[in-house]
Amino acid sequence: MTKQAARPAKDERYANLIPMKELQFEKDRLFPFPIYEKLRKLSPVRYDKQRDCWDVFKYDDVQFILKNPKLFSSKRGIQAESILTMDPPKHTKLRALVNKSFTPKAVKQIETRIKDVTAFLLQEVRQKDTIDMIDDIAGPLPVIIIAEMLGAPIEDRHIIKTYSDVLVSGAKDSSDKAVDDMVQKRRDGHAFLSNYFRDILLKRRAHPKEDLITMLLQSEVDGEYLTEEQLLGFCILLLVAGNETTTNLIANAVRYITEDTAMQQQIRQNTDYIPNVIEETLRYYPPVQAIGRVAAEI
Ligand code: HEM
User: Fold this and answer.
1) Cβ distance 19 to 29 under 8 Å?
2) Which residues does a 6 A CB cutoff place in the pocket of ligand 1?
3) What element of type H or E holds 47?
4) Is the predicted pLDDT of residue 5 greater than 50, yes or no?
5) Closest CA to ligand 1's atom 4
6) pLDDT number for residue 175
7) N or C: less crowded end of the chain, CB within 10 Å?
8) How many A from CA of 242 to the centre of ligand 1?
């Protein structure tokens, strides 16, 4: 969590993108849980001078922060405004527009397509000697599905993925150069994707289709259509939010199944366990491990 203070804006806005000093080594970032456990015991709430922000490690405290948007705002301002960086009541209204597309019922409707794409990707890998879980399966699967949901042409998926990854990349370390590089890369990525989706918006305005972009174009909030900036923010958020998260979830689940041979055996014998394995991976080895808020009252 970042405090509002008279510091250079850069520090405030990017604090949660710089690794904590305890996680400066990649091996720790790949398996940070013993470190979190120690921090939870030693300093459940602590101020980190280097990143100029507060870190909160305990479940109840985190829950309190996330449930009190008036005290702890989502307005972090690193990217163009999107629902991710909005507070209620504006957040609630805009969020309602896309809720319908992500209900269990709506997701169930695309289940067959997700299975087909997975089967296709696995079929492709069969031609090779080895499988790279990220490049061959966990990376392409979410981007194909999200691109299709949005209405972006499937053949653009490589370029979409490249820029989507750029937008979630963190700084390599806490040096000014690393932070500046990250900021520049993110700006370029954002500019690219804005132009990309602006083109599709134009096409859908002229020829509506059954996709999320058309749905957003036709949506109204308080009797008004979304502005171009809001539309672009939505497209980019949906693309970026769903990509790396899902890739990491698949990768983390596969890592556990691969390493825990007893569990692997159980799952092979009874595939009904798979939904539980996914749920447990979300809890035990989650793709998102830190989220930021800005203290709105001092
Ligand atoms: C395993 C996969 C996923 C994980 C772990 C995950 C995690 C999260 C987390 C922790 C947040 C809250 C961030 C914050 O409040 O600061 C969030 C927000 C969001 N995610 Fe995901 N996500 C996943 C998949 C997806 C997918 C597939 C999509 C859509 C294609 C998506 C779209 C969004 C959107 C639109 C928000 C903003 C919601 C809001 O502010 O109300 N996410 N996600």
Assistant:
1) yes
2) 83-84, 95, 146, 237-238, 241-242, 245-246, 249, 287-288, 291
3) strand 45-48
4) no
5) 245
6) 81
7) C
8) 6
Would you say 129 and 146 are in contact if contact means Cβ atoms under 8 Å apart?
no
Please give the pLDDT value at position 298: 77
Joined together, the tokens standing for residue 146 give: 């999200």
Residue with the nearest Cα to atom 26 of ligand 1? 242
Q: Are 71 and 295 in contact (CB under 8 A)?
A: yes
* pLDDT, tens digit (0-9, with 9 covering 90-100), for 264-284: 999 999 999 999 999 999 998
Report pLDDT digits (tens) over 185-227.
Answer: 989 999 999 999 999 999 999 999 999 999 999 999 999 999 9
Mutate to test the pocket of ligand 1, among 78, 93, 288 (most ligand atoms within 8 A of CB): 288
For residue 119, report the distance from its CA to the centre of ligand 1, in Å.
Answer: 25
The secondary structure of 61-123 as a DSSP string is: HHHHHHH-TTTEE----SSS--GGG--TTHHHHHHHHHHGGGSHHHHHHTHHHHHHHHHHHHH
Angstrom distance (rounded) from CA 239 to CA 143? 8
